[in-house]
Amino acid sequence: MESRFSSQKFYSVQEATKKMEHYCAYQERCHKEVTEKLRAMNMIPEAIDQIVGHLIQENFLNEERFAKAFARGKFNIKKWGSNRITRELKFRGISTYNIKSALAEIQNDDYLNTFDELAKKRLSQIKETNPFKKKKKLSDYLLYRGWESHLVYEKTNELIK
Question: Which of 39, 43, 77, 87 fits 47 for a cystine, CB–CB 3.0-4.6 Å?
Answer without folding.
Answer: 43
